[in-house]
Each structure stands twice: as C-alpha cells, then as structure tokens.
Amino acid sequence: MGSKENVAIHQLLALLEARYALRVLWSLRDGHPQTFRLLQDSVGGITPNTLNTRIKELREAELLTHGSDGYILTPSGTDLLKRLNDLQAFAGKWVVAQAKKNAAKAAEKPAEPAVSKAAQPPAQASE
C-alpha cells in the first residue's frame, strides 16, 4: 500500500473512530431518513451535543446528508456501509469464539481450596 493509500485509510479511520460515528452511520443503514430525535434514540446513549458534532463531521465527509424527511446516508455512506456489512457476520463469529475461549480458560483453572478463618494462623502483631 502506497503512502497516499495509507493517508486515506488513516483519515477515514480517524473519522470513524470518533465516539458514536459508526453507530450514527449504522443507524441509517436501512435507508430510511431519521429526524435528529429518532437518530439520537437509534444510536442510544448519545448526547445532543455529541450527535450534533458527529452529524457535522459526517456531513463534511459527505457520508450523510439531511433530506426533507431527516438524515440519510449519501451514496458514499451507503457504499461504506456495504463494505462494512461483513463486519456483522464477523462480529457474530468472533463473539462465539471469545465465549468458547473464556469458557475453556475457566475450565482449565484449578479450583482454589477454600480456607476457613478458623484454620488460618493468627496475624502477628508488629512491634
């Protein structure tokens, strides 16, 4: 990958790494316009100030726009989400694999013997 491609991917990732940016785009993936309030509800947990900031950034990046019925993805935004669509399938497989790995780790740990307080030696007083 050349330096121009590296710059481009770094710029795109910096935009998408901003808090809630991907969730805002993902909330619009079905193609239905959403009002500010509906978009805020769809994203969940986002403050109005943060949503305003993300909308501004994503509009400047030409990934979403505001139509007569609300916010919608631009053709570039739709293209990006099509390319990220495999992420959902990957995420499902990854979560299952992580759960199996964690279960195997838990099964490998030997059980620690329980020691009652009565069986423990008394603490030494420091002088």
UniProtKB/TrEMBL annotation:
GO terms for molecular function: DNA binding. Residues 16-96 form the HTH hxlR-type domain. Keywords: DNA-binding, Transcription, Transcription regulation. SUPFAM superfamilies: Winged helix' DNA-binding domain. InterPro entries: HTH_HxlR, WH-like_DNA-bd_sf, WH_DNA-bd_sf. The keyword Magnesium does not apply. It comes from the Bacteria. Residues 105-127 are annotated as: Disordered. This is Transcriptional regulator. It comes from Rhodoferax koreensis.
